[in-house]
Automatic annotation (TrEMBL):
Residue ranges annotated for the GAF domain, each copy included: 142-299
One family name in Pfam for this protein: GAF_2
Protein origin, superkingdom: Bacteria
Protein name as it appears in the record: GAF domain-containing protein
Gene3D superfamilies, A to Z: 3.30.450.40, PAS domain
SUPFAM superfamilies: GAF domain-like (SSF55781)
Length: 413
């Protein structure tokens, strides 16, 4: 399963699976003399230079026995994942084949030889393993694994499964799209990752900076001679890097998310399978990064909502406290008004009482120093404490002492 669909994805899959090598031979007799064979057959069984009329005297482990068994029993025989070595020198490579041996019969039904059909499965199996790892990465993304975990796992998977040594790096674009930050590079030296963390995006800024700037792949096959690497050549040399192929990681709307790079320790030109691999996993990285951005935005929105909720709760509590305070003031004002009314009645008998008249039900033993009045004509004498309480809580109350001593006592209390 890949992260993209359509003709481009199908072409990438075909490139990854590649062209399988098929071999064929028609063998006669118990010595397995070659009557006809495809040119690749002799290479596959390790008998380069042999041809029609030659008997097979050797082959991959188990292959001669497979031929003998098919000839002796007259039953088809199959061997899977037969390991062979193809090519020589720097072109030598390990390969695996599936072989099927079908008995040949004459008109009477007698077994007279064996037909051999073999198909190379090396790249198919390699790609199947890569796709299995790819599916695992998609599952990680689906369950919202940490971005660093996904990218690091992706890099390690490609490095472990790629036919040739490759070192994978993922750089993440800053929000402004002008710089690239370290995302994952498990096999690159720490000093190298630190040095390129924060590089600018721009023409000629290595493979990755240029790919990010152009929004298209940039293939540098030889770092020692490419002008894009003028400012980083010494750094790459210390890290043992000789080639770098970088693919931009783009969001669905075309925005830059980062770069996906494949480094090599020797100068190397990519094959179509390499480019397909880069496209497939750049798409996977894009999916992971976009999901990460969505989760970050969601978390930020939730935090803003939490802060707003807390502020609203504070405002509600403050409003409730103000209401409660207003109610307390209203109650106090009513009580003080009642006291003043009672005091006014008492003054008819004694105009200037000795003790404070504003102490409520419990009374007040402080001297009555200050006279206050309200707009309804009620007046009362009280101590400085209760007079101040009345002035604060009852709007219409004012100091009404006829003697300056009352006001002076209030002001100098």
């Amino acid at each position: 399963m890949v992260a993209v669909t359509g003709n481009g994805a199908n072409e990438d899959l075909r490139a990854l699976f590649g062209q399988s090598t098929a071999v064929f031979a028609s063998l006669a007799g118990p010595r397995h003399v070659v009557e006809t064979a495809s040119p690749a057959f002799f290479t596959a069984i390790g008998q380069d230079g042999a041809g029609p009329g030659d008997a097979l005297v050797d082959g991959p482990a188990g292959f001669p026995a497979l031929l003998d068994e098919a000839y002796r029993t007259g039953e088809p025989q199959t061997a899977r994942d037969v390991q062979v070595v193809l090519g020589a020198g720097e072109h030598e490579r390990a390969a695996s084949f599936d072989f099927t041996c079908e008995p040949r019969r004459d008109a009477t039904g007698q077994v007279i030889g064996v037909h051999v059909i073999g198909v190379e499965t090396t790249q198919v199996k390699q790609t199947q393993r890569l796709m299995a790892e790819h599916r695992a990465l998609l599952e990680q993304i689906a369950r919202q694994a940490a971005l660093g975990e996904v990218l690091d796992g992706m890099a390690r998977s490609i490095e472990e499964l790629a036919p040739e040594e490759v070192l994978v790096s993922v750089l993440l674009a800053d929000a402004d799209g002008l710089h690239l930050r370290h995302g994952a590079a498990p096999s690159l030296p720490g000093f190298y990752n630190e040095a390129i963390d924060g590089i600018a995006t721009g023409e000629g800024v290595g493979s990755c900076g240029t790919a990010a700037h152009r929004r298209e792949p940039v293939i540098v096959t030889d770092i020692t001679t490419d002008p894009f690497w003028d400012d980083f050549r010494e750094l790459a040399g210390r890290a043992g890097l000789a080639a770098c192929w970088s693919t931009p990681i783009l969001a669905r709307d075309g925005a830059l998310l980062g770069t996906f790079a494949m480094y090599h320790r020797t100068p190397r030109v990519p094959e179509e399978a390499d480019l397909a691999l880069a496209r497939v996993f750049a798409g996977t990285a894009a999916l992971a990064i976009e999901r990460h951005h969505i989760e970050e935005a969601k978390a930020a929105a939730e935090e803003r909502a939490r802060v707003a909720h807390d502020e609203l709760a504070k405002a509600v509590r403050a409003e409730q406290e103000l209401r409660a305070d207003a109610e307390r003031r209203a109650t106090a004002a009513a009580e003080l008004a009642d006291r003043m009314s009672a005091a006014a009645t008492a003054q008819a008998v004694k105009p200037h009482p000795e003790l404070c008249q504003l102490g409520g039900a419990q009374g007040c033993t402080a001297p009555a120093e200050i006279k206050i009045a309200d707009s309804w004509g009620d007046a009362a004498w009280g101590c400085s404490t209760h007079v101040e309480e009345a002035i604060i809580n009852v709007r219409s109350v004012f100091i009404a002492s006829e003697e300056l001593g009352g006001l002076a006592a209030y002001l100098s209390r």
